[in-house]
TrEMBL record:
InterPro entries: ADH-like_C, ADH-like_N, ER, GroES-like_sf, NAD(P)-bd_dom_sf. It comes from the Bacteria. Keywords: NADP, Oxidoreductase. GO terms for cellular component: cytosol. The keyword Flavoprotein does not apply. SUPFAM superfamilies: GroES-like, NAD(P)-binding Rossmann-fold domains. One of its GO terms (molecular function) is quinone reductase (NADPH) activity. This is NADPH:quinone reductase-like Zn-dependent oxidoreductase. Residues 11-328 form the Enoyl reductase (ER) domain. The keyword rRNA-binding does not apply. It comes from Jiangella mangrovi.
Amino acid sequence: MALTVRFHEHGGPEVLRLDDVDPGRPGPGEVLVRVDAIGINRAEALFRAGQYIEPVKQFPALLGTEAAGVVEALGPRVGGLEPGQAVSVVPAFSQNDYGVYAERAVVPARALLPRPQDVDAVSGAAVWMPYLTAYGAMAEVTGLRPGDVAVVTAASSGVGLAALHTAARLGATPVAVTRTPAKADRLRAEGAAEVVVSAEQDVARRVLELTGGRGAAAVFDAVAGPGVIDLARAVAPGGTLLLWGAQSGRPTPYPGFELGMPALNVRTYTVHETTRDPDRLRRAAAYVASGLRDGAFRAVVDRLFPLTEVAVAHRYLDSGERFGKVVVTVRH
Ligand SMILES: NC(=O)c1ccc[n+]([C@@H]2O[C@H](COP(=O)([O-])OP(=O)(O)OC[C@H]3O[C@@H](n4cnc5c(N)ncnc54)[C@H](OP(=O)(O)O)[C@@H]3O)[C@@H](O)[C@H]2O)c1
């Protein structure tokens, strides 16, 4: 049996329950993993609340797609892994099918990456969602090049910080957008060449000033809502406004017509484009692993919570105070 976080109805963090359930035996192409740490992401809070891009198909529902642990057992037709091996679970599956908020969980083998000896469980649970999301969008979808300016909103989030690091490693200039001045110094310390405080500054005007009037090659936006009109003004001709989150929770207009039909690419993106394609995942994982090795990339962990306080961790997620990643640890 394994303590497993499930919810039996949609709602706030209080609907999360710790149920003692049999994790089951791994089937073909599956692996049973002892979970040591769990990366907490916005997608889980949205899935819990019934606001995720993918609806919950059945209750009780599982949660979580990012974790680190150790392989306990292999199902049939699984190669390249062995019991006792340290691994990370990356977000390559639907929460309707699998969930890693648990002491032990069955997951598809294609979602496992070997975890090097020097990467502890907390780091191994904190880096993959942010960096795979950032790499796929910045390097492969947008084709960010050295010398480009990349604007990142919600920059203090796990994904935002990974995007700042990734832009810098690609040779681009990362510009961070954050709502208040509270996190500005820490964003500069994490490599932001400029920090724009959206509550105090006109973001588009500031980006145009910074780029000599041309605009940024790409804007990576996790906020969406009516603000996209203003963000689109900050994009250079032929550049991209890439939407990867919807923190505002408000309807998002299409900015093209409002701005006179500029040469603007508007693109939505999820990490699943990267993680559900074996070739793209292989390239992205190699890039992230090399960044972790050379120190350009690292886990920025804001707070740890024990599994028994998973609802508190979700409440903290909603507080907006965080800087980097929230991780839940599992004691065995
Ligand atoms: N497309 C994908 O595949 C993918 C994958 C992972 C994450 N995401 C998205 O990336 C974003 C970050 O996710 P995360 O899990 O790393 O962290 P998160 O907890 O969702 O983001 C926290 C940050 O978002 C900003 N924020 C919070 N509420 C906001 C609001 N109402 N308006 C504007 N900004 C707000 C704050 O940054 P400041 O205090 O700096 O303003 C806060 O620190 C989310 O939108 C998530 O859905 C997308």
